[in-house]
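Subject: for your reference before the review

Hello V.,

The reviewers asked for a structural picture of the protein, and I figured it would be easier to keep everything in one thread rather than splitting it across files. Below is the amino acid sequence we used in the manuscript, unchanged from the supplementary table.
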Amino acid sequence: MSLKKILVLALVLLGAGLTSAAEEPRIYTIKKGDTLWGISERFIKDPLYWPNLWANNPDIRNPHFIYPGQKLRIFSDRIEIVGAEENIEEVHMDGQKVVPAVSDSIRIKAMGGGEGFLEKTIGSVGSLVDATDNRIMMGPGDRVFVELTDPGRVAPGDRFTIFRLSDRVTHPATGEFLGYFVQDLGTLQITELHPQVAAAQIIDANSEVTRGALLRPYQPAPREVALKEAVAPLSGTLIGGRQENLALAQNMIAYVDLGSDDGLQAGNLMIISRPRKASEIAMETRTTPLQLPETVLGAGVILETQPHSAAMLIIKSVDAIQRGDRVHAEMR
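And here is what came back from the structure prediction:
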């Protein structure tokens, strides 16, 4: 699936007559559209510049999350973020000042359904018990029959989310039981009520629907989320994806052990990294541990939160991402 680009870079050249013994940078203003990986590739021919810059300079505050109206200095071999305290003015080649565009929200397209979530306590209001024929799998438009736990509170026209429980999940570091992956399968709508069952029609499905699937009150899948800054620095662990033992990459859904109770919100950008081990040669001459900067693997955007976990869409990966890798959100 093609993702909408996060940020766009507007190129503004400094006055052509300016000369200096030191290289004069060009000043750029961030606008809606492109990513910093794309900026690095386009202007200094190194798409991995930003991850490496962050990894080797731990004091830099999250260079991946930039905002409309923010300025960059572009040198021939590097890119710098202009600090908020600096009063840098852009100019056209004719010397006229450029007024930065008004910042507006940056939105990320979600996967379009089926992201699912992680939860310990799973409640359902019913289950799909049969269909009108002997097919094993059902899809959009099919008529099915459901048993409801409280049919007196249901009326024709009501919609329910169809889901199933997937793998049991433990924390990769502590082994603590975290819950079950809950996979959303689609949506159905009640058409008729009968003494024992209700007839329904499957409205949409993003995976195969089979007998035994569970129901919960309808929850529309997030179609897009607006990027937003984290309310506080957060650090956690990537606890897995939909398929066990599968390396994760761009456009895949992953789950983290942070949730709404920790202050995490849909739209928060998460940097994904992994501790870097010192080489055997370096440790031969040392008597104390050597702590190296972490290796940046990519970035993700939180799509949906539960109290203690969240679903995250990986929007960029520069290396294979695995269960147990670190995730963190920083403030500007």
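For the response letter, the relevant points are probably these. Residues 36-44 form the longest helix (9 residues). Residues 225-329 form a domain with the Thrombin, subunit H fold (CATH 2.40.10).

Happy to draft the paragraph if you're swamped.

O.
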